[in-house]
Amino acid sequence: MTTLLSPAREQSLPERISKHLPNGLLATQTACDGISILWMAAADLRPTLAALRTSAAASLMLLDLTAIDERDRTHRDGQPQAAFTVVYHLMSLNTRSDEVRIKVPLGATAPTLPSICDLWPNANWYEREVWDLFGIHFQDHPCLRRILTPPTWTGHPLRKDHHARATEMPPYSLTEEHEAQEQDALRFDPSAWGMRRHSDHSDFMFLNLGPNHPSVHGVFRIVLQLEGERIVDAVPDIGFHHRGAEKMGERQSWHTYIPYTDRVDYLGGVMNNFPYVMAVETLAGITVPPRAQMIRVMLAELFRIASHLVFYGTMAQDVGQLSPVFYMFTDRERVFGIIEAICGFRMHPAWFRIGGVAMDLPNGWEGLIRAFLHDLPLRLDEYDAMVMRNPIFRARTKGIGAYTTTEAVEWGVTGPGLRATGREWDYRKHAPYACYDQLEFDIPTGTNGDCYDRIAVHVEEIRQSLRIIRQCVDNMPAGPVKADHPLTTPPPKARTMHDIETLIHHFLSVSWGPVIPPGEARASIEATKGVNTYTLISDGGTASYRTRIRTPSFAHLQMIPLLSRGIMVADLIAILGSIDFVMADVDR
Amino acid sequence: MTYSALLTIILTPLVLLGLATVLTWVERRLLGLWQDRYGPNRVGPGGMFQAVADGTKILFKQDWIPPFADRGVFVLAPAIGMMTVLLSFAVIPLPMHAGIASDMNVGLLFILGMMGLGVYAVVLAGWSSNSKFALLGGMRAAAQMISYEVFMGLSLMGVVMMAGSFSLQDIVAAQAGLWFIIPQCLGFGVFMLAGIAETHRLPFDLPEGENELGAGFHTEYSGMKFGMFFIAEYAGIILVSSLVTTLYLGGWRGPLLPPAVWFLLKTGGMVAFFILLRASLPRPRYDQLMALGWKVLLPLSLLNVMATGTILMLRASL
């Protein structure tokens, strides 16, 4: 254990962990994505993670914490016996190879693990989520309540024996007794939320901000404990937008799940397809042709601009400036014009396909984009004068909601929120995917990590995205837009009418969907709001066995209590605006 | 009392209410113009009758009082808001002596008093609604309006000194040579800011503070009771604009054009300026607003009183 504390640069993170486990590893597993998976016993988990936390310095992030219901899985060669598996995904921001998934096997009856909230504060919500959706208990968790489903829910939705859709249940009826019970569960009790009713001097006022409030950007509830207009404590309550996107992944075929991903971060459009199809392609071993890669990157960057423009406008709106949002939505409309010309859809094109994209670019696409590339920078300069240099706007955002790089890493903050603290980290540079390694762009950073810096980083990212798009337009390679591979969707059709083998294959692939070989793969992208990760497990079927969506907004919202203590209500609104979250991205 | 005086008394509030209603449409069209969009343009020529449509709709809405509200005060609050604004207009000197009591010798004090009473509308609405958002709005309103009243009164003292009278007629008469906006530019600036704060318009619309408080003090109001707050706000804009016109822009005075046109032009320009402010500025935080008031505006208005007094004394002694 001791050498874990001294940084041994020559050894990678998985090696360091495996060498110094007191009882040794239960097993190692290699996934299609090349990231080591270490199986360890529940007893070893906390000591290992605690040692890692102290040694591996401030750059080790708990990227994700989730679980797998293993009870229906057939392809588990070499993996320890388990009914449930809890997965801890650790990622170092410094070195790309320092990334590891730690898995802990658990039994079927009353699965329990020690909580790691004291090591990584962002484990809090993740553990609550695992408790809520899988029924795995975490000892010593400060507040292990349901997080995504209502408090009165019975069962744990992501278990394989839980129904996936309403039609699998008897017709619903609301009895009076049941209604009273539901109403009772809605009653607000400050002590259950970890808040006191009064201090020594005064009674607190509890303000229920949301779930329908103009400034919470969707259905999001924050319970505020107020003394005057000053916030003593804030407790976010999420789950109002939960649609079971992960559960749907286990039902839809690999191909038909693509449109569902569009709706996760509904401002990100095809940006959501990106990690999903990349993960499926990794599982299936498909190499995407260069033109398709470039088209994907170009569209993803267009959506980044669209999303950032919404952020910019609504942020100004949140501090009371009425006009910018109209100008920025006008620009966004132009982006959508381009996207519609290419994809035929605006917000949710579902345009990426396993192995490439749906279609080649239409005639005249270049002209549309070039005109936009010319116009937007001029308008951005105007917005700088109107918003960023406005004294009232600066007074409202400078020094508000600041956090340090260390705090950001502890809380799993990625994207502009991390860069605003001065840390130059972007997943597109950290682990370039698609063709980002061939494109030139800078990573904008801030210095103070406050609201103003977060906004400034967003604005500069729009400019960098324009730069990337310009390179894409200038260097768009020729060639196919879909890989020539039997598992791509929709499958190649050219020879279906010539030989029976291809016809059968095509028929099955279209009606049932492709059968993806068993395995595990994870794909991450730098989405509009931070790192978006899809972890897919295939059990050799036509649908995913487990779809895990790690979204940036979920991690970022957890920080709200930390940022909001001691500030005014109006500041909280500025902070909410600057975090740039989408509730569908939080609740999935 | 002559028939014409009676007619004026009846007509003035009616015209004002009509103007305030039309102003809701004007504001939306102007905002649309500045924000690259249309605004209401469907009902009547250019959407002019939008205000009528809105008014009709709001009149026919259920007059609902939330069960948890303090009924009496809840009903009284919008009425106070409406009344104080309308009463203030009595002393505004309209061209051709069309005003109701524009020669009142303490006209300016009367207006300040009415504006002071106007605070009650907002505070009582916030309190009687018995809702947290409304309470916070009412609380903000009380602090904001009471403190801005102080500088509003002080900033006007310069004008009073120069005109030597509280009567608005006399003040207009005193601007025959030079509009007070030039010698009283400091006072003008402070009065403008205080005026915006009094009408709680953006950027000083903290009592409503949509992004924080939903609708602030009138969160629980609906139907015509909300409509009264709404119309009172627009009447308030007209009031402050016509006050600025009277006190600093020479009232109905002006070359070539008839006085009525001048008065309308100046007041209309000020109203448009109010709307432009709303289109362009963000909202400061509550404590920043108070700091601006007490730390910047109060010393400035005192300085203005002192400087004006000194200059007048010197000039008199020469």
Describe this structure in words.
- The complex is a heterodimer of chains A (588) and B (318).
- Chain A is α+β, with helices and mostly antiparallel strands and 588 residues long.
- Chain A has two domains: 2-159, 2-Layer Sandwich (Beta Polymerase, domain 2), CATH 3.30.460.80; 246-549, Cytochrome-c3 Hydrogenase, chain B, CATH 1.10.645.
- Chain A is built from 21 helices and 15 strands.
- Chain A has helices at 2-5, 13-19, 42-55, 123-134, 176-186, 245-249, 258-262, 273-284, 290-318, 324-343, 365-388, 391-397, 405-410, 416-419, 427-430, 451-474, 500-511, 552-557, 560-564, 569-579, 583-587; strands at residues 27-30, 36-39, 60-69, 84-92, 99-106, 112-114, 137-139, 205-209, 221-227, 230-237, 352-353, 356-357, 519-526, 531-538, 544-550.
- In chain A, a hairpin with a 2-residue loop joins strand 9 (221-227) and strand 10.
- The longest helix of chain A has 29 residues, at 290-318.
- Chain A is globular and about 85 Å long.
- Chain A starts with a helix and ends with a helix.
- The model of chain A is unreliable at 1-8 (pLDDT under 50).
- By secondary structure, chain B is mainly α.
- Chain B has one domain (66-317).
- Chain B contains eleven helices and no strands.
- Chain B has helices spanning 3-34, 50-59, 71-88, 107-128, 132-163, 168-174, 185-198, 210-213, 223-248, 259-280, 286-317.
- The A-B interface holds A 205, 207-208, 213-215, 229, 316-323, 326-327, 330, 386, 390, 392-393, 395-396, 568-571, 573 and B 31, 34-37, 132-133, 136, 139-140, 202-203, 205, 209-214, 278-288.
- Chain B: Its EC number is 7.1.1.-.
- Chain B: Keywords: Cell membrane, Membrane, NAD, Oxidoreductase, Quinone, Translocase, Transmembrane, Transmembrane helix, Ubiquinone.
- Chain B: InterPro entries: NADH_UbQ_OxRdtase_su1/FPO, NADH_UbQ_OxRdtase_su1_CS.
- Chain B: This is NADH-quinone oxidoreductase subunit H.
